[in-house]
């Protein structure tokens, strides 16, 4: 069955009000960090591009997945205390905790540098 969700606004609106608030805060943080990023749905989730794939996020029942790159995760490892992550490209953000804005900004900026250097 093909998804009828066509844009990031519709993606966010499918969730309850509490999750919508968190997702909108994350979306704003992304555009504050890289206002020139292109936003679209890819792989059925919000995805951001700047000189290629940059980052994406996906809302799940128990956590918010934030996807960057293996090198970005390694670069920010010291900032990941208490935040579940894997060495591939993923951190898991708890809906019950404040968004780690400094970490998210650093992951995004690292990805921007990666894309500029590739």
Please render the helix and strand layout as text.
Layout: H1 8-13, H2 17-33, E1 38-42, E2 45-49, E3 53-59, E4 63-67, H3 70-75, E5 90-94, H4 101-116
Antiparallel strand pairs: 1-2, 2-3, 3-4, 4-5
Helix pairs in contact: 2-4
| Sheet with the most strands, sense and barrel status | 5 strands, antiparallel
Distinct helical segment count: 4
Low-confidence stretches: none
Class inferred from helices and paired strands: alpha+beta
Binned strand content: 15-25%
Q: What's the arrangement of strands in the largest beta sheet?
A: 1-2-3-4-5
Helical percent range? 25-40%
Topology, number of strands: 5
Mean pLDDT over the full residue set:
95
Number of domains: 1
Question: How many angstroms does the end-to-end distance come to?
Answer: 36 Å
C-alpha-based Rg, rounded: 14 Å
What's the CATH class, please? Alpha Beta
Order of helices and strands: HHEEEEHEH
Q: Assign the CATH topology.
A: Aspartate Aminotransferase, domain 1
């Amino acid at each position: 069955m093909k998804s009828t969700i066509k844009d990031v606004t519709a993606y966010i609106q499918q969730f309850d009000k509490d999750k919508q608030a968190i997702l909108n805060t994350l979306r704003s943080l992304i555009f504050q960090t890289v206002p020139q990023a292109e936003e679209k749905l890819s792989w059925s989730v919000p995805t951001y591009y700047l000189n290629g794939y940059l980052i994406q996020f996906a809302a799940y029942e128990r956590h918010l997945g934030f996807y960057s790159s293996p090198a970005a995760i390694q670069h920010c490892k010291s900032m990941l205390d208490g935040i579940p992550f894997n060495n591939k490209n993923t951190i898991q953000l708890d809906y019950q905790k404040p968004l780690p804005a400094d970490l998210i900004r650093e992951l995004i900026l690292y990805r921007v540098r990666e894309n500029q250097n590739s």
